[in-house]
Design goal:
about 160 residues, mainly alpha, Dimethylsulfoxide Reductase, domain 2, 3 domains, 3-stranded parallel β-sheet, about 40% helix
Length: about 160
């Protein structure tokens, strides 16, 4: 719908109405402002011209953001790989190199599994996590001590 805002305003104004009402407060506000308020930067858009692989997780731009879907299709034609995680095989899932059809509600298990594997491989930015995540406040099961505390610079062991 966001792609059509300009056209909808033009249509309303063509009929002499200054009134246009959207449900942004229900479905866009959190997307538009939460990242800015949380991280100090907007949500951003993928750099599809330079991406070798795109992961869509529970998102279907074919129905929710047509301009992005068109750019994704262009990137696919140039050779970008696509991974789609969605229980439905609709839209871009049909074009995916890998479609993971999760059962609804099982996203958390996959996310935790991926995070665990990245930690096991050491494939993470330690300084970023120390500064921007709650990782330093995690607690060891065996000792109930914080993973990071004075004299113990190792976060994950």
């Amino acid at each position: 719908m966001a792609d059509a805002f300009g056209w909808i305003h033009r249509l309303a104004h063509a009929y002499g109405s200054p009134n246009v009402l959207f449900a942004t407060e229900n479905c866009n506000w959190h997307k538009d402002f939460s990242p800015q308020l949380t991280f100090g930067a907007g949500f951003g858009v993928p750099d599809l011209q330079h991406s070798g692989c795109l992961l869509l997780w529970g998102a279907n731009p074919s129905t929710s953001w047509l301009a992005l879907a068109l750019e994704i299709n262009k990137a696919l034609k140039r050779g970008m790989k696509l991974i789609v995680i969605d229980p439905r095989g609709e839209g871009l899932a049909r074009k995916a190199d890998l479609w993971l059809r999760l059962r609804p509600g099982s996203d958390k298990a996959l996310a935790l599994g991926l995070a665990g594997e990245l930690l096991r491989m050491g494939a993470f930015d330690r300084d970023f996590l120390l500064s921007w995540s709650n990782g330093p406040w995690l607690v060891r099961d065996e000792t109930n001590e914080l993973l990071l505390k004075a004299g113990h610079p190792q976060v994950w062991t």
